[in-house]
Amino acid sequence: MDMSEDIRELSRVVFSYPAIDNHAHAFLREEHKNAFPFEGLVSEASGEKASQDATNTMACYRATAQLAKLFGLAPGADWEAVKRHRQELPYDQLCRLCMGPTRIQCILIDDGLGCTDNTYPYRWHDQFTGSPTKRIVRVEALAEEILKRGIETQFVAGELSPSKLCHRFMTGLEAALTTAATDSEVAGFKSIACYRTGLNVSFVTSLMDDAVISEIEQLLTKLSLIYMTKRELRLAHKEINDYVVNVTMRIAGEHGKPVQFHTGLGDNDITLTLSSPAHLQPLIKAYPATKIVLLHSSYPFTKEAGYLTAVYENVYLDFGEIFPFLSADGQRQVVRQVLELAPTNKIMWPTDGHYWPESYYLGTLQARQALFEVLESSIKRWELTLPQAISIVKGALFDNANRIYNLRLEPITTP
Amidohydrolase-related domain location, by residue (predicted)? Predict the structure, then answer.
């Protein structure tokens, strides 16, 4: 087989092999399909001016061209033309048009993104896949619901006991995490500590330490007063958030469920300097039996993520969200950085699809393109053999996630 035949075979595998989307979010319900600005498809920026700026990026120009082609629009169609056309399509047709080419066999959906009334339940997405959708449980959202129930129970009883509230919260969290960890529908957990207090999560040596409990009691009392006054609750206190993460890490490790961490790329709610996965090193060491998945390529800290993946047995790297948020050159550069050091049997692909079916389409198309172009270049430089490149592709798209999340799926291949 000559070089050109090798490249054709690589292309065939990259663009046809089934995929496990190891991290995504639910579609908006049809009646809420306009709940958020469509510019969120190509940018994490928030606010009207920021959304306008997003349409002037290389990422948006490329996405516009790719969606225009998918929709059968004339060459040169602009962003507004794409938006108008998608609005005219029946929603079911739009969803199937976007999902059909992806070859996604299974989706692992974090259904705790927020606005759950606006989105479909995770199993609704089974209609687009060959294997059932699984849940990823967002632990901060779970902890907030448990705390709300505890506060409301005390309010009904006419009492405000910090020790009782703390006990209800801790025992409730432990029970809920254990239930999730033993649920066959749950593939793993996810923490957004990166958004709330940063990735410098402290290892709590004893979860029942008197000093830890005392501090949490005080914070929960403050939160309960805020909740009863404003009906709002958001866990963004380091002592509580660190406790939630530590309990999750212990229970997940006991039951063999991975814990995903948002790292790097996100909206302006994160503190960028605390979003590097390097901050997780003490936690990684403290829980060697717990599988940790670093999400979103940890961009712009991809090299740090690759380092952690290489030197710690329990660390894995997801190279997502850069599709479609980065330019094509940026995506290729990130994939190269992932492959610089990270073992190829520990990398996984996601769409990070959310709200709009187009996010799944672009997340798949662009990821396959970047993977092909980077591996093609390595084959042409005689750095990889075709079998090695194909092994990387199959691992990144399907096999690694299948093993790491213990999904026990067989790839459904089509001629």
Answer: 247-406
